């Protein structure tokens, strides 16, 4: 990844950590699930309100490192309004891409996370295996919450 793109990604993570989107408890969720990462102390609860088959609201609350907070913020922005089935597929795709140890850019030059917008900022965690858990924590909690709906 070139240095200017790396700097942009770092800024996205820092901005979502400084001002996380949708960080609050949802008082009447359809479902919720907690995620805890004992290796660094991240603790996040994801709240989902479903209307029919669509995620009407998705929020999170909890404490953790900049990566876990930014990842949760990015996740809520991406999943709101999605059908449960589509959200589950996105979660699976993002988690797979973040733990995949293949080179960041496939030989065809396309970055598979580009379709998920700013979530691509999380790609850098692949270089730091201990941080992958931080980046995927909220996504796993969201998957658990969706499975309850």
Structure explained in plain terms:
This protein is α+β, with helices and mostly antiparallel strands. The chain has one domain: Sufe protein. Chain: A, CATH 3.90.1010.10. The chain has helices spanning 3-18, 66-79, 84-99, 129-148, and strands at residues 31-37, 42-51, 54-63. It has a 3-stranded antiparallel β-sheet, covered by helices on one side. It is globular and about 45 Å long. Residues 103-108 have low confidence and may be disordered.
Task: Characterize this entry briefly.
By secondary structure, this protein is an alpha+beta fold. Helices cover 44% and strands 18% of the residues. The chain has one domain (3-148): Sufe protein. Chain: A, CATH 3.90.1010.10.
Keywords for this entry:
alpha+beta; 4 helices; 149 residues
Secondary structure layout:
Elements: H1 3-18, E1 31-37, E2 42-51, E3 54-63, H2 66-79, H3 84-99, H4 129-148
Antiparallel strand pairs: 1-2, 2-3
Helix pairs in contact: 1-2, 2-4, 3-4
Helix content: 40-55%
| Average pLDDT rating | 89
- SSE topology string: HEEEHHH
Strand order of the largest sheet: 1-2-3
Uncertain parts: 103-108
Number of domains: 1
What CATH architecture do you see? Answer: Alpha-Beta Complex
CATH topology assignment? Sufe protein. Chain: A
Percentage of residues in DSSP E strands: 15-25%
Integer-rounded radius of gyration: 15 Å
Tally of strands? 3
């Amino acid at each position: 990844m070139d240095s200017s793109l790396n700097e942009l990604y770092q800024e996205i993570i820092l901005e979502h950590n400084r001002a996380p989107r949708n960080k609050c408890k949802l008082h009447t969720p359809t479902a919720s699930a907690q995620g805890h990462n004992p290796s660094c102390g991240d603790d996040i609860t994801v709240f989902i309100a479903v209307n029919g088959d669509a995620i009407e609201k998705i929020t999170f609350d909890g404490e953790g490192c900049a990566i876990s907070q930014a990842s949760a913020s990015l996740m809520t922005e991406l999943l709101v309004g999605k059908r449960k089935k589509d959200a589950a597929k996105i979660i699976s795709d993002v988690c797979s891409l973040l733990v995949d140890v293949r080179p960041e850019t496939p030989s065809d030059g396309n970055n598979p996370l580009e379709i998920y917008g700013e979530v691509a900022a999380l790609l850098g965690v692949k270089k730091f295996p201990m941080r992958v858990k931080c980046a995927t924590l909220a996504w796993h909690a969201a998957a658990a919450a969706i499975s309850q709906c």
